[in-house]
Automatic annotation (TrEMBL):
GO terms for molecular function: ATP hydrolysis activity. Residues 43-203 form the ORC1/DEAH AAA+ ATPase domain. This is ORC1/DEAH AAA+ ATPase domain-containing protein. It comes from Seohaeicola zhoushanensis. InterPro entries: AAA_22, P-loop_NTPase. Residues 1-25 are annotated as: Disordered.
């Protein structure tokens, strides 16, 4: 009998790219779930924002399932690709209508007409195809599907249109139109999902700020997982579900996982999957070799391009102090989202006391250079005279590729 008979496969436990919520690896986020659920009962439309990979989609899908919300997702990549929001609505409707047609023909062949397709029945709307413009048709479609329940249009991946004034104007128009009796009768709410903070301010550039902001409510940012949430996810998947055994100090092992992934939910799932597969090759044991092999494979898959960018910015090993390397390493160790050159200098002096004692470091100059490259690792925030990493993946790349040995920054992974 197999050592793993009766246990699920790693890819059944860790499903980082799944569009559906995986109950095996979903960690509840009660405060955010409550905020979203309450927002669904209020008059305003909603904004969900946070860095890519933090779990925005699973959050709203979990809440919608719990609250029995009917919804349709409009990927704003389609609006950008097709040239208008109306075209994206039409594309979604056409796909749904084709599914309805197939279902109708399948059931009709059995002699039964499907309930509610083109037919009035108590407590629901009749959805008449082709008689309205796409936005109203989509509202009617969702209302028919929802019956008397809650109904939502999700406009996902807002960052894909945030710099397109015309598409932002079209989103604003839809929000405002939902106060018009023709459209408000369907009682459908819009939920906008994306990475930028201040989505209401972006939309207000095409309309009066008060006009938009009074109609929108932003729930708190969907941030990276807390340490407790991240450890719960990994223990649940690796030890409870897959019955794998961590060799040595498990707290140190999980702390390392949390550090290299920056507690980003998507990356935790990706790394968890790689670790589980490697561990199954070694009788279900997770040791240092398993962790290192899995981390290298994860980095090649998830942060390869960022690692290449980082490698291009490093000083050569022959440089005496390798100040830029120290700056980059220090930026990866700082946990705050924004930091000043003074924060970085303090961290460098803490980490490299021998090469920084009584020496002027010119950290501000190094940070300025790193923020002005064609593909910068840092972003300068002029209003605050501070910096932030251009992406959470930069922090992951720094923490995965670099280490301190004998007082110098060295690459510990070279074959990415």
């Amino acid at each position: 009998m197999s050592l793993f008979s009766g246990t699920p496969k790693p890819e059944e436990v860790f499903t980082p790219r799944s569009s559906d919520v995986n109950r095996r690896s979903y960690i509840p986020r009660p405060d955010l779930e409550e905020e979203l659920a309450e927002g669904l009962t209020e008059s305003q439309h909603l904004i969900i924002f946070g860095e890519s990979g933090n779990g925005k989609s699973w959050l709203y899908k979990r809440v919608f399932e719990t609250e029995r919300v009917s919804y349709e997702v409009i990927n704003l990549v389609q609006a950008s690709r097709l040239g208008s929001l109306g075209a994206a609505f039409q594309d979604r409707l056409s796909r749904n209508e084709e599914l309805e047609k197939e279902a109708y023909e399948l059931v009709k062949s059995g002699g039964i007409k499907p309930q509610g397709v083109g037919v009035d029945f108590e407590g629901t709307w009749t959805y008449v195809k082709g008689k309205k413009e796409p936005f109203e048709r989509l509202l009617a479609y969702i209302r028919k599907k929802a019956g008397r329940g809650k109904a939502v249009i999700v406009l996902d991946n807002f960052e894909q249109i945030s710099s397109d004034a015309d598409l932002c104007k079209q989103v604003s128009n839809c929000i405002i139109l939902l106060d018009d009796p023709t459209y408000s009768q369907y009682e459908v709410k819009i939920v906008i999902v994306g990475t930028p903070a201040g989505i209401d301010e972006i939309l207000s550039k095409s309309d009066n700020l008060q006009t938009i902001s009074t109609r929108l409510k932003e729930i708190p940012e969907v941030e990276r997982m807390t340490p407790n949430e991240a450890k719960s996810l990994m223990r649940l998947g690796l030890e409870s579900a897959l019955k794998l055994k961590v060799i040595g100090n498990s707290d140190i092992f999980y702390d390392r996982m949390l550090k290299v992934t920056d507690r980003i939910a998507l990356e935790l799932q990706e790394l968890g999957l790689k670790i589980a597969k490697e561990a199954r090759k070694k009788d279900g044991k997770i040791d240092q070799v398993v962790f290192d092999r899995a981390t290298t494979k994860w980095a090649k898959n998830s942060i390869r391009s960022t690692c290449a960018m980082l490698a291009d910015r490093l000083n050569s090993n022959e440089t005496k102090a390798a100040r830029r390397n120290q700056c980059l390493y220090a930026c990866g160790e700082i946990t705050k989202d924004t930091f000043t050159y003074k924060d970085v200098e303090a961290k460098i002096r803490e980490l490299f006391p021998e090469t920084t004692k009584n020496v002027a470091l010119n950290v501000s100059g190094e940070l300025s250079k790193l923020s002005k490259d064609e593909n910068p690792l840092l972003r300068r925030i002029e209003s605050q005279k501070s910096y932030r990493l251009s992406s959470p993946k930069v922090r992951m790349a720094i923490r995965t590729m670099l280490a301190i040995k004998e007082g110098k920054v060295v690459r510990v992974i070279n074959d990415i």
